[in-house]
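Thread: quick sanity check before group meeting

JM: Hey all, I'm pulling together slides for Thursday and realized we never actually wrote out the predicted structure for the chain we discussed last week. Dropping the sequence here so it's in one place. If anyone has concerns about the input, flag it before I start.
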Amino acid sequence: MDKITLDIKEAAALIGVSHTTMYTAVREGQIPHKKVRGRILFHRDTIEAWLRGEPSGQKAQ
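JM (edit): ok, ran it. Output follows.
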């Protein structure tokens, strides 16, 4: 069973970029994410749709 949410390192591995690039994308609002108690989390389905260029209906936060 796949996890529903991903942390920075897991999302970076899924996308194929460094975790530094992920932090930059989050800071610049380029990638959809949520902050929960100081942690940056990504919803797997939302990230996969974002990669395909599909509108997710969710703004990057």
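AS: nice. The chain has one domain: 5-52. The chain has a mean pLDDT of 89.
JM: adding both to the slides.
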